[in-house]
Amino acid sequence: MPRRRISASGAVPRTATRIRPGLAVLGWILGAIAASVFLAPVAVHGAELEHCRGELLAGNYAECIREAGEAIRDRAWGEDWPVLKARAELAIGEYAAARATVEDGLKRYSSSVRLRLVGREACLFTGDEPRARELLEQIDQLATRSPWRYSDAADLVVLGEA
Predict the structure, then answer these.
(1) Cβ atoms of 113 and 162 closer than 8 Å
(2) Nearest 5°: CA angle at 153, between 152 and 159?
(3) Most CB contacts within 10 A, which of 118, 131, 151, 153?
(4) HEC sequence for the chain
(5) Distance of CA 12 to CAs 2, 17, 22, 141, Å?
């Protein structure tokens, strides 16, 4: 191991603490590779999410259900996937399926107010008013307990509707 030179004042010269240029370049390359590996799926699922949302708005409910179902099976992150799937199922009258989608989604996104509001609608269609009231109460409890979690536009709309 090379010996460090220390000046009379006890300070280590700058050259002893510098990173070698080759290591810096290697660090940048490894960082770029890691970013592309870990962030690429996020970008892909983001584009798919917008496409799926467009399918729902265009009335292509079966396609929206298929795409959202695939994303959920692939464990794509985001509560939007089960919300879109459940809304499409509600639109075609598949109320029990929408309810199952919401209940499964709540297992992964336990603090989601959006899923709860869609679930409330599904419960009302299936005639389960006690569960619908329970979901509304949960929305109120979540928003009261942790209001900072629900400050984005989509959650604020849900809180206003609830």
Answers:
(1) yes
(2) 90
(3) 118
(4) CCCCCCCCCCCCCHHHCCCCHHHHHHHHHHHHHHHHHHHHHHHHHHHHHHHHHHHHHHCCHHHHHHHHHHHHHCCCCCCHHHHHHHHHHHHCCCHHHHHHHHHHHHHHCCCCHHHHHHHHHHHHHHCCHHHHHHHHHHHHHHHHHCHHHHCCHHHHHHHHHC
(5) 13, 8, 22, 58
Task: Look up residue 150 and give its DSSP letter.
Answer: G
Q: How many CB atoms lie within 10 A of CB 78?
A: 16
CA atoms within 13 A on the CB side of 112: 23
Q: pLDDT per residue over 34-58, tens digit each?
A: 444 444 344 345 678 999 999 999 9
The pTM of this model reads 0.70
pLDDT tens for each residue of 84-127: 999 999 999 999 999 999 999 999 999 999 999 999 999 999 99
Q: Residue 110 burial (CB < 10 Å; 0-12/13-18/19+)?
A: exposed
